[in-house]
Amino acid sequence: MNILAIESSCDETAAAVVADGQHALSSVVASQIEAHKVYGGVVPEIASRMHVEAVSAVAAQALEQAGQTIESIDVVAVTHAPGLVGALLTGVNFAKGLAFAAQKPLVAVHHLRGHIAANYLTHKELAPPFLCLVVSGGHTHIVEVPDYTVFRVVGRTRDDAAGEALDKTARVLGLPYPGGVHLDKLAQGGDPRAFQFPRPKVEGAPYDFSFSGLKTAALNQLQKLRLTSVEGAAAKDFAASFQFAVADYLCERFLRAARDFGARRLALAGGVSANSMLRHEIAQRCAAAGVQLVLPAPAWCGDNAAMIGAQAFYEFLAGHVAGTRLNACPSMSIE
Ligand code: KG4
Ligand code: ZN
Question: Which residue's alpha carbon is at the smallest distance from atom 19 of ligand 1?
Answer without folding.
Answer: 181
